[in-house]
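Sync notes, pocket subgroup
Present: LS, DG
LS reminded everyone that the earlier model was apo-only. Rerun requested with pyridoxal-5'-phosphate included. Inputs:
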Amino acid sequence: MRDKTKLARIGRNAKHSAQMVNLPVYRGSTVLFDTVAQLEAAMAARARHEDMPVYGTTGTPSSFALSQALAEMEGGYKCQLYPSGLAAIAGPLMGLLSAGDHLLMPDSVYSPSRAFCDQFLKRFGVRTSYYDPCVGGKISDLLQPNTKVIFLESPGSYTFEVQDVPAIVEQAKKRGILTMMDNTWATPLFFKPLEMGVDVSMQAVTKYVGGHADILMGAATTNEETWPLIRDGAYNLGQCVSGDEAYLALRGMRTMELRLVQQMHSAIKIAQWLMGQDGVAKVLHPALPHDPGHALWKRDFKGAAGLFGLELAQADQKHVDQFIDDLELFGIGFSWGGYESLAIQGRPPRTVKPWTGGPLIRLSIGLEDPDDLIADLKAALTRFNRAR
Ligand SMILES: *Cc1c(COP(=O)(O)O)cnc(C)c1O
């Protein structure tokens, strides 16, 4: 079965849905058993990693349906759900790392992941160092005897560097180091980390799986060897999701491919248009041939998200703010991956290679007509150029 067909079929369970197309929403904490023996059998099944309802925090039919669907899309063994994307980064890292371990993070990583390492993991005796996301196989020079995990995120947040994932994974495997990747941008439709040998693939379900800016959720899918560490970490932290949100995420998956493909085409059209415009210094989009990450993107990815970067010409901050304020069809706000377009300025907190270019704008392209979005950008750019 191809991915599109899978999206229409996964996570449906006739046994639990009274012959309706969709599974109902299961809300609940307590699961009741007829006998003590049944309760004990359920606990034993859960200990064998079976999807067995025992207590609400460790899964309901709603969350099991979603996690099975995501694991299937990722080509993984099992998937753990978390109440946000950030929790799906923090939880697995806590499951994998112990005091005294060393962690490698790309300099282009999502800022809250960086804060988690610098502010939180540090207090528990885990040391983080940052690496140039474009290091490739030379990551071997940065490995220390206690390096336990290499984290990847490709393309990078705000600056969109594409990483050579197979080269980094190869070095990690040689040394028995675990790899974990934030795959929120590509989703498993456009990039499958586990097929590339990555041990843990996470995504913010909040973004393209949800797709409608109405849920917060994260997911970490692993291979069989790594699963116990991730699962036990989540159990110990009490991480779980509600049936209502699991339902919405599964509903989002049905149309995810259609939305992503549309958003990809719109974003490429808009990025190409922006390339020639006065006031635009650079467009950061790996699907465009001029982009430094284009060759790797073309080699490894099946598509591109609707999220890309735009470097404006140097200008006073007030003119940059005005440019964003002038956009009528782009909302000003955090997150992305919904049906509505968004614009925000990024200030990447780099320590290995500080950002030295002009003001960086991140555009999340939604499902509006791209020609309307271009007209909107054109009007705001005209005012920006007049003002700066
Ligand atoms: C948004 C985002 C997250 C976190 O997702 P939340 O659900 O908002 O916590 C993680 N990684 C990347 C790359 C993101 O853009």
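DG: The pocket of pyridoxal-5'-phosphate is lined by residues 84-86, 110, 157, 182, 184, 204, 206-207, 216, 218, 335 (CB under 6 Å).
LS: The chain has twelve helices and twelve strands.
Action: DG to write up.
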